[in-house]
Design brief:
The protein is α+β, with helices and mostly antiparallel strands and 65 residues long. It has one helix spanning 45-54; strands at residues 5-9, 14-20, 24-32, 35-36, 40-43, 62-64.
Length: 65
């Protein structure tokens, strides 16, 4: 399954991938140079909005990858 869209925060600490499986899903990866964490799966826009808010990331901080 290929992501529909991919974003990174401006510090390149996080990578967010959006998937259109029957519902809208987001995979969040913590990035540290060449390594990445296992994905944290979020289901729906509300879950992504809460995650961005708890990590103090605004939509303006995201750039397409």
């Amino acid at each position: 399954m290929d992501p529909s869209a991919v974003w990174r925060d401006k510090n390149h600490k996080w990578r967010i991938e959006a998937y259109r499986a029957p519902d809208l899903r987001f995979a969040i990866y913590a990035t540290n140079g060449p390594t990445e964490s296992a994905p944290l799966w979020l289901f729906g826009m509300a879950a992504l909005a809460r995650w961005l808010m708890t990590h103090a990331i605004s939509l303006d901080d995201l750039e397409t990858d």
